[in-house]
């Protein structure tokens, strides 16, 4: 029972501490965020003095520094957005190159339409459409089987 009392006291203390922390006011939150952004900008300008000489718009200077070929971006070893986008494009092309499209047979399309019509006709009672769903699943299964037989 003494361990139960200790756990109760600990829980009571933790809940009291949480109650003492009031939610932050939105104005205070905005001020806190702005302060942290300013601190981060000052840190960046201290690390990269060429940014502070870039002119009146420090945000533009940061964006320019991130462009491909920029000495700041190269020195930091960062990948540019364009390089990342190009990598993604090549990966997508590689993936799409290996995928062959299969013409969907009329039986699958017809079964799909029957399922959709049944769901529309029986809104609120989707279990009434079990027969149409099973017919659709069977037609898809048969199409897949036929496709693999042709492929092998």
Automatic annotation (TrEMBL):
Q: Which Pfam families match?
A: DUF1690
**Compositional bias annotation for Basic and acidic residues:** 1-21
Read off the InterPro entries from this record. Answer: DUF1690
Q: Where is this region: Disordered?
A: 1-26, 61-82
Domain of life, per lineage:
Eukaryota
Q: What's the protein called, per UniProt?
A: Uncharacterized protein
Q: Which organism is it from?
A: Tieghemiomyces parasiticus
What taxonomic classification does the UniProt entry list for its organism? Eukaryota, Fungi, Fungi incertae sedis, Zoopagomycota, Kickxellomycotina
């Amino acid at each position: 029972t003494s361990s139960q009392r200790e756990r109760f006291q600990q829980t009571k203390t933790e809940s009291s501490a949480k109650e003492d922390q009031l939610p932050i006011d939105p104005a205070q939150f905005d001020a806190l965020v702005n302060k942290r952004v300013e601190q981060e900008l000052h840190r960046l300008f201290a690390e990269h003095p060429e940014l502070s000489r870039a002119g009146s718009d420090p945000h533009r200077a940061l964006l320019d520094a991130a462009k491909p070929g920029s000495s700041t971006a190269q020195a930091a070893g960062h990948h540019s957005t364009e390089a990342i986008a190009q990598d993604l494009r090549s990966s997508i092309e590689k993936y799409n190159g290996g995928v062959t499209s299969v013409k969907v047979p009329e039986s699958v399309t017809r079964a799909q339409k029957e399922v959709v019509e049944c769901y529309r006709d029986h809104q609120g009672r989707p279990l009434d459409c079990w027969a149409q769903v099973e017919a659709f699943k069977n037609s898809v299964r048969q199409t897949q089987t036929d496709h693999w037989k042709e492929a092998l």
